Amino acid sequence: MKDLTLALATGRTAKQAIALLEKAGIVFPDYHNKSRKLVMVDKTKKIQLILVKTADLSTYVEKGAADVGVIGKDVVMEAQPDVYELADLHIGKCKVAVAGFPETALEKNSPVTVATKYPLITKSFFDEKGMAVETIKLNGSIELAPLIGLSDVIVDIVETGTTLKENGLEVLEEIMDISARLIVNKASFATKTEDIEQFIGKLTEALEVEI
């Protein structure tokens, strides 16, 4: 393979992606939990890895700073980058859900205020239900919003539900299941088609072994 640049978002999904890459025979010797390096190469020196913030990853791929990237389906849906989505990697599995106090009722005739970092997903969901919604965009500690009366409910990622329970909240409605996807820069796919297909093939084989 010729050189490819792979973007991973820092955090839990990156660790799972690295494990999948290693099963595919793609190993980055400099990657470890305590490393501060943001750019590294694999053992063959043919694939460059860059570690970026989740919110920025789709931009790196869309603009061509990375040829391929691993990112959650939720981010793809919210950011709507101009890229190809070529594979479901079956890692980073969780749900996007509406959560709030147990007694909260979601009724068509009652407008609802929602705190979320996913305004597009939120609007689409409530539009389909025919409900009027006011969205408050937040970037962190989403669970705080209903606790202090900033919102009626939240729309957020739910993995175990532990944080919700600890704050007296629960899932009211599930919106969708999500997992990490492989996204590809359109120009890179045109100029490095064989390299990218080989890369995807290795991951697919590793997934089949894992499954």
Key descriptive features of the protein:
five-stranded mixed sheet; 2 domains; D-Maltodextrin-Binding Protein, domain 2; 34% helix; 8 helices; 211 residues; six-stranded mixed sheet; elongated; alpha/beta
Description of the structure:
With 211 residues, the chain is α/β, with parallel strands linked by helices. The protein has two domains: 4-92 and 179-210, 3-Layer(aba) Sandwich (D-Maltodextrin-Binding Protein, domain 2); 94-176, D-Maltodextrin-Binding Protein, domain 2 (3-Layer(aba) Sandwich), CATH 3.40.190.10. 34% of the residues lie in helices and 29% in strands. The protein has eight helices and eleven strands. The chain has helices at 12-23, 54-62, 73-79, 119-128, 144-147, 162-166, 186-191, 193-210; strands spanning 4-9, 39-41, 47-52, 68-72, 84-88, 94-100, 112-116, 133-137, 153-158, 170-178, 180-184. The protein has a six-stranded mixed sheet. Helix 4 (119-128) links the parallel strand 7 and strand 8 (133-137). The longest helix has 18 residues, at 193-210. It is elongated, with a radius of gyration of 19 Å. The chain starts with a strand and ends with a helix. The relative contact order is 0.21. The mean pLDDT is 92.
H/I helix tally: 8
CATH class of the largest domain: Alpha Beta
Total domain modules:
2
How are the strands of the largest sheet arranged? 2-3-1-4-11-5
**Strand proportion:** 25-35%
Shape: elongated
| N-to-C series of helices and strands | EHEEHEHEEEHEHEHEEHH
CATH topology-level fold name of the largest domain: D-Maltodextrin-Binding Protein, domain 2
Give the averaged pLDDT, no decimals: 92
> What is the SS-derived class?
alpha/beta
- Per DSSP E runs of 2 or more residues, the count of β-strands stands at 11
